[in-house]
Structures are given as C-alpha cells and as structure tokens.
Amino acid sequence: MGTIHHLLLFGTCLSLYGTSRAQDVLLENFDDVELLFQNGWVRKNRSSTIGPLTWRQGGPLGAAALTGDSLSFLGNGYLAGSGTISDWVFTPPLLLMDGDVITFYALSQACVFYPDRFEVRMNEDEDTYVAYSATSVGDYAHLLLTVNEDLSFGGMPSVVAGDDWGWYSAVVTGLTAPVVARVAIRYFVEYGGADGTNSSYVGFDALRISRGTTPVGELQGNAPRIRFDPITGAVQLMDTCRVAGTALVTDALGRQLGWIPVDREGTMDLSAYPGGIYRLFLFDRCERANHSVQIMKL
After folding, report:
1. Whole-number Å distance between alpha carbons of 220 and 156
2. How many DSSP H helices and E strands does the chain contain?
3. Is the Cβ–Cβ distance between 137 and 86 less than 8 Å?
4. Quick one: pLDDT at residue 219?
5. Strand pairing partners for 295?
6. What secondary structure letter does DSSP report for 219?
7. Strands 23-28 and 276-284, how do they pair?
8. d(CA 123, CA 130)
9. Burial class of residue 64, CB neighbours in 10 A (0-12, 13-18, 19+)
C-alpha cells in the first residue's frame, strides 16, 4: 500500500499516493547505551576541563523515557566538564543521501535556570575527528541544527517548567551523491559545569534517520486536520492538542527552509514565503507521532 500524502490547496484536502514508504536508515531508542559503544557508536569529550561523566544511559532528568523503561534514553549534562563543555557522541557510519531527515526528542532538566545547548553536525566521511579543543569541530563543520544557540533561559523544553519532550528535526543537505558518513550530537555549553551558570542535564530519545516519500511519519487517516489559506499563507491546526511549538518547513525537494512557530491556538504563518509547494513537518502531541503535510501557496 502506498504512502498517503496530503496536498492542501484552496482549503481543500486532496489525497495523493506515493510509490514507497519511508525507509529507516537508523532507528535508535537507547535501550542499552553501553552496548551502542560496542557497536560503532563513539563518544569524545573535548571540554576545556573534562568532568567525571559523559554520554550515558538515562540519568537525573526527572522524566521518563518515551519508550521502554524509564531510563531508556541517552543523557548528558553539567558533569561532563567545566568551563566550556564540548562533549560529542557519534552514530556508526551510515549511508546518507541529500534530503534524509533526522528526527529525535530532547528534554532539559532545568533549562529555565541553567541553560543547555546542543548541536547536530555531520561529517561526509567515517572518521570522528573533531580536533582537541572545546571550540574546535574538526571534520564536523557541517552544522545541521542548533538548539538554544544563545543559551537562553527556557530555550528548550524543561522538566522544571513542566514541559514534555520536544521534537526536533534536521534535513541532510549539501550532498551531491550518497556517502558513508556519521552524524554527531554535540552538547556544547560555555560557563558550564557544577559551579557554572549554564548547563543542567539533557535527555535524547527516539533518534530516527529516514529517507523516502514521507521521511518523518507516514500520513494515514489520523493525520492532523489543517485549514490553509493559499493566498495569505495562514495555516490553522484543527486539533489544538496537536500544537508542536514549531514546524519545520522544507521545499518540495526536501531542502530545509526554516522553522515557523505554532501558537497555542494551533496557528502558523507562511506569509513570508513566496508562492510554491512546501512541506510542513509537525509533531502530533495527541498520538506522539510525526506527520508531514504538503501545501501549495499561491
């Protein structure tokens, strides 16, 4: 059975059928983190002063994992170092293509008081070279995503603030041909550590790298209902419990164009985008699932 896509034009939803389902390049729920490091995953701590702990199973997050037992997530935080914390974790070598989509969930313990930040980077090769300083990136100069770039209070979902796990997405770009490469998550915080003003603890869960006609969530009959005005670019989610906080916007070829906020009423604004075909990637809070919706703006 083909994957269902939705094309929204003049407020009408038309069903289009693709030829293939999304293919998972990597799907990891972090049920056994130590086992990952015996099977191709790598961790490297390049903090200015290296701390006693690094990437590990679960930890003092104060919230349960999305799947599996309560500690089935990847964690890191202020005990990774002091001064500038720069602690890396690398996937195994993967066959990546332009347009592949990386999705995962993340949650901070106390970003509202001690800001956290992380990056998603990639290397177009199999090595894990990031040089040796807290600010160097080595062969991982290709930045795909930064969360809480300015180390703002409340710059990402936080347990202390009563938030749920946040969903994040990045699109692999800049590849002219398939390559065997690695993706890295970098916990990167200045003035961090036990005595610092920044860094608390962050959990990561449900990492997925996928490719295909619907790279993040296959649209079935339970897809979010959306009302769209193709002239003004106003998008309205009909089920407000499905508010995601932000939606990723890509063009028809899957190239990432940016993020737009989703307010508490489920409203998004695409007025800044010129006419064309776009795809919105949304996290469905009701069903804890990911969906994409294609729209045409006039």
Report:
1. 30
2. 1, 22
3. no
4. 34
5. 8, 278
6. B
7. unpaired
8. 10
9. middle
pLDDT at 26: 93
Can you tell me the distance from the alpha carbon of 213 to that of 106, in angstroms, rounded to the nearest whole number?
Answer: 25
Q: Tens digit of pLDDT for each residue in 90-148?
A: 999 999 988 888 989 999 999 999 999 999 999 999 999 999 999 999 999 999 999 99
User: CA–CA distance from 97 to each of 176, 202, 240, 292 (Å)?
Assistant: 8, 28, 34, 19
Say what the pTM is: 0.70
State both tokens at 187: 């916990």
pLDDT band at 220 (very low <50, low <70, confident <90, very high): very low
- Backbone torsions φ then ψ of 92, nearest 5 degrees: -65, 165
pLDDT at 263 over 80: no
Of residues 3, 53, 26, the one with CA closest to residue 206: 26
Distance CA 92, CA 94 (A): 6
**234-260 confidence digits (pLDDT tens):** 887 766 555 556 777 887 666 778 778
Structure tokens at 68: 């599996």
Other residues' Cβ atoms within 10 Å of the Cβ of residue 4: 16
Is residue 80 helix, strand or coil? helix
